[in-house]
Amino acid sequence: MRLIGLTALLALAGCAAPILLDPPPTEIPDDIDLSGYWSLQQADSRQEPRGATDTLIIPRDRRAPVRRSKRSEPGSAARVFLESGNELKITQAESALFISFDRSIVEEYRFGVLLDVTVGPIEAQRSAGWVGDTLEIKTLDEDGALLTERWTLQPGGEQLVREVSLVHKDDVLIRGKQMYLRRSSR
What we know:
mainly beta, 1 helix, 10 strands
């Protein structure tokens, strides 16, 4: 009898509703435009590490294999959606933001839309929307790991701050910050 109960419990767990992102905010601020050319501000190498919110260093090698077995590190699939670059070109349109990372990879983030995105066999949901003056981009992989990026233009418009976190269940896998300085066009 216990075996039947355990089997039924496992079957119910397998039928659990998938985790879904909330619909992103649709209101776009009129006075915020992230467009322009931006250069990564290098961290001062003399600073001592201060913990999980130090300057974020994102490896550029996307060719590294992503393991999909149960023994894989949680959140490893969501990492393939994390782009970075030393030089950014950002174009903000009415309905989307386009970011060119080091003139090689261009990402489109559509405002107020919940999308399915893929990198090879890896699938995820993505939303992008404005929370006040901050653009918030969320990417949720099939295993429930949530990659969150927040892009904020600092007063004066000469500095752009990107905060990134990757969380799986209660484990913070990545947390950091990148600072970009505005520069003249190429």
